[in-house]
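Q: Sequence in, structure out?
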Amino acid sequence: MAEPLAVSLAPVRGTARIDVLDILRGLAILGIFYINVPYMAAPVWQFSADIRSLGWSAADQNAWALINIFLAGTQRCLLELLFGAGMMVLARKAMTPDGPVAIADLYWRRNLWLLGFGLFDVFVLLWPGDILHIYALAALFLFPFRTLTPRVLLTLGLGWAVLCAIGIPEHGLRQYVDRAELVQQVDVAHAHQRAGQALTPADGKALAEWDKLVAAHKPDPELNARIAREIKAHQGGFVFYAREAWGYWAFLANEWLVWDVIEAFCTMLIGVALWKWGVIQGERSKRFYLVLMLAAYGFGVTARAIGVSETISFTLMPRTSWVTGEFARLAVGLGHLALVNWAVQTRPGNALLSVFKAPGRMAFSLYFLQQFVGKYILFAPFGFNLWGRYGWAQMAAISTMGIVLLVLFAHVWMRRFASGPFEWLWRSLAYVKWQPLLRARPSAPPLPDRFPPAPLASEAAGPAAR
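A: Exactly. Output:
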């Protein structure tokens, strides 16, 4: 019988790391701060009902629009793509059906611990928007797909975008067509009214449906109660504060957990495909990345800009984003990936983006730090209690200042330590062995096997003694 294949399991360190993946991870974990700060700093139920309720100055409108075109969902997209690529880095020794079982053990152990960290984020750090438990659940299903061809992976990965486009789980093409037909019917009914003509049964039905639609978009007693409860939670102590955070997470989990896991899983599949094509890790040419960036941004930014303009029109007209939304999210995320890979192949771009390698190597820890500072210090009722004071532009400024501080902190930390504290703990638990935390000091040059023999007295004295 053949002897079992020996596998040496150890975290990827030093020159084995892929710099562009660290840069992408750093940018994604920092960029997500722009998305998360409003959910820490402002009344969520209030601005979810009407984004103008936090302030709608020109600066607020520009900040909200830019974040929703370039960052909302796309940072999550990058992390999901990187998660798929990360699996391939880990599973490079298990690419055959009978590959080493130790790799699979490690992979699932890592993700089960990641699930635990995510629940810690939800129930201890009080962050309802945690993504770690979602990624962990999605990743538990990912490993068996590692041997599929890139085309099959891409096709499966686009499945979620197709479901969204056709109207699962929310608005899609069918709802767009229905709403467009209703608007047309209402316009006809209004034209009959202006002309003084009697309304037809079809006119009456269309107007009744429109009235129901308008009523459904007005604040109801339940929404007002949620807003009041959230305000009360930020005026009391820890118990009320924690209960509100847990309650909001339960609401999100009940409404979206399954769909969020499906989205993450599908995007991870695309990440695996991009890895196999050599796209995500920078193996393609600079021209390739430039073309990919222009194509991805061309569609994604255009579609998202149209969607933003539809949203801030504050009407009940049908929205193209119901159909294009997920495709546009993936496209802009892919555009970010292409931009970074193109830029690191240029000298100025590489110098500029290298700043984000340190944050990328401790992104897990920075993610927890964001939650701790936001939920326990800046916006907590028992902290500085800055909750509910800022508009969209001010929150974007807070996010920017926070990102600068996180980058500085990451560089100071990584000068002395081999990884972030949460990375260290996660790796130690996954490998069932304490991993080194301190950065190894450069070793002294090796001594010769033996010292050379002592010179003769005449040699030591120099030529004059001879």
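The radius of gyration is 28 Å.
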